[in-house]
């Protein structure tokens, strides 16, 4: 895993947090929730290949 991925995840977290707070204060709680959900899904798609590789490595380790 590269450091760039960690920085991208942190940037998305900061952006989603700020945007969510702005939307909550303007009375759009539903939009704030959807923004948080979209950020979570985006980050999950970024780390999904790494999770797959982890499970594949564990499976190979125990199938010796």
From TrEMBL:
InterPro entries: Spore_III_AC, Spore_III_AC/AD
Record bears the keyword Cell inner membrane: no
Keyword flag Membrane: yes
Domain of life of the organism encoding this protein: Bacteria
TM region(s), chain numbering: 6-23, 32-52
Keywords, sorted A to Z: Membrane, Transmembrane, Transmembrane helix
Record-given protein name: Stage III sporulation protein AC
Organism encoding this protein: Diplocloster agilis
Gene assigned in the entry: spoIIIAC
């Amino acid at each position: 895993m590269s450091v760039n991925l960690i920085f991208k995840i942190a940037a998305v977290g900061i952006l989603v947090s700020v945007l969510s707070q702005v939307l909550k204060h303007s009375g759009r709680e539903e939009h704030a929730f959807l923004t948080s959900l979209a950020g979570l899904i985006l980050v999950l798609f970024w780390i999904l290949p790494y999770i797959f590789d982890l499970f594949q490595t564990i499976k190979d380790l125990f199938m010796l």
